[in-house]
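Case study: DUF4397 domain-containing protein.
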Amino acid sequence: MVYKVLKSVMFCSFLSIVVILGACTENDDSGSSRGELRFLNVIADEPRVDFSLDEDLITSSVSFLEATQYYRVDAMRYDFVVNQAGTFSELLRDSNTIGKDKRYTFIACGPSDDTGSIFMLDNNVDSTDDRANLRFVNAVTSRLKVDAYVIPEKGPIPTVAAQSDIGSKGVTEYINGFPGNYRLEFRNSLNDNLVARSEWVNIKNGQVLSVILAGGEEGYSVAVIVENE
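Here is what the predicted structure looks like once written out:
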């Protein structure tokens, strides 16, 4: 389910956010050795892609910044294959292992001529009812390193980054904080220039989230995905 979508525009003039709620899991629960997997397309110049495991198509025509629902799949090693939508034109093939009773997000990122991937174990933190947990992901395949800031709607603007020097395809540890309205911001680690900023995001008690920087030189976007709903 897409919570909000704002169009990404040219480099840093105006910036965008997608907040994606964790969708219902598809497929039955038969069999005990299974895990859960969803896909996220942040290939900036591919408006739609198909995702397969080995040679089996799992989901098709996934648009840019779209996260799919979670799928229950057998716990084993797969070739993760990304194709241009509706074709056999392969953009990426990468091997990863699904663990029993684990939940993952597979991110296809970068431009189509240099497609990369990030394979994340989701909800890998002890959540509490009075706090939220979030981590930051740099899904840009260039050499851009970024610092991440969490800016409260009320209160002083932080002068110290929540996470620093996040390199290409880097995934940080979780941090925790109180629920509320926040802006989530990425800045260039070298010169502190703004790269991308979300609008106000209402972070709730007990949520576990990933904040993802996506795009390229023609424009950057922020996607926020909830891992435990």
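For the exam, be able to explain this: The radius of gyration is 17 Å.
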